Model the fold of this input.
Amino acid sequence: MSAPVIHESAYVDDGVEIGDGTRIWHFSHIINGTRIGTGCSLGQNVMAGPDVQIGNRCKIQNNVSVYKGVTLEDDVFVGPSAVFTNVNTPRADINRMDELSETRVARGATIGANATIVCGSTIGAHAFVGAGAVVAGDVPPHALVVGVPAKQIGWVGHAGERLVPGDVTGQLVCPRTDRRYMETTDGLREAAPEDAQNE
Done:
């Protein structure tokens, strides 16, 4: 993989780690202590840090600030102008940086344009947060959430498509890949061949 590509208008502090193949575009600022994995793309006017962890193959679109306390695991997509917070009760005249609440976005999750992720939330693996949603709590893996406040309206598969009922009772199917899933009391899991045989 090639060396990182950093646009001449971007600013990268000392003490930052950037993996091979990562591209950082116009007017972005990466603050000290931040670690960015391999094969990422950070669009125009992205700010990350300090001490932020960004996994491999993440895509962060224009005008996003990833504050201290936020962790993005591998393969996370963050849409343009999405917002992360890091303090629950901010005040301009009170320093509350010792009250940061951690936010974790798990592997393969998508956050749509203009969504807001209130600090202290965990976005589960392969979940999908719709554009403009306001998330103020945990989102289960593979859940599709929309609205203000965000509510779950369905499930999505690994490919990000909303799952639809399949030809086997109880199974949900990805219309793009035909990958099959089952709802459980704990959420969603990939269907096994014996699930069809047990119907």
In short: DSSP finds one helix and 26 strands in the chain. The radius of gyration is 18 Å. The chain has a mean pLDDT of 95.
